[in-house]
Design goal:
It comes from Agromyces tropicus. β8, α8 and β9 form a beta-alpha-beta unit. This protein is 39% helix and 20% strand. The protein is α/β, with parallel strands linked by helices and 300 residues long. It starts with a helix and ends with a strand. It is elongated. It is built from eleven helices and 13 strands.
Amino acid sequence: MTEAREIERIVLMALDEDAPWGDLTGETLIPESATATADLVAREPGVFSGAAVVEATFGLVDPSIDVQVLAADGDRFEAGDVLARVAGPARGILRAERVALNLVQRMSGVATLTARYVAAVEGTGARIVDTRKTTPGLRSLERQAVRDGGGRNHRRSLSDAIMAKDNHLAVLTSGGADLAGALRAARERMPHTAHLEVEVDRLDQIPPVLAGGADTIMLDNFDLDALREGVALIGDRAIVEASGGVTLDTVAGIAAAGVDVISVGALTHSARALDLGLDVVIEPASAGAAPAEAGPGGPA
């Protein structure tokens, strides 16, 4: 689960963006004494992600709002399922509504798409992992959503591992430097706890990369025949990762080629926000009046 302080940072940023000087609509139209209950309802099936985000969003707007999350991260749900219920001051609930929905819809969309990729490679031994192709500012939440969908995380940032991609290699060898020797020299400078991954886009790059001591070799945009050759050439001397244009239609074949890891940028850069809504019942401040039902949360 994402750390509470990181969730708080992201939620506060989103709340400030959405209501920098307060909620003019709620503060004008809704009596301060009005209370409400609201259900977070699924409009379509999927995989839930963002329980702590729902709690934090309503709690940061108004700590007196009671939040009950009824689904756990990673749970599958069907259309019509109630995923969470909130009750308390109506102004606070309405102010928090859009931010809570934006974040949990995004996270659940990533988790749902990830689960489809994981199911597609079931039984092959290949791991589905994410990439750094995340929404700026939301990387922590999207990485959690990948885990909630059954996937794994690649390096979080440029600070976490050495990953030499095509542009790095082009610069590194532009002066005629020997690739294997350049990688060995890099290993000499690496912290002993660091991991070295090297991307290749041709089979003839694999021997010098192996000689340079790569821990992981990424086969980028290889067709299936080349993937199988690459896997055989590398053997057990390095972890084999496949990447580049992976889709739900191609991922099973890639996994069957024998790779250890498949990195999929689409998990985060192309995931569709899941259709979730907040259904609100407003309780009037005056005693004895019948409750007035409000429709599903709109696009505001």
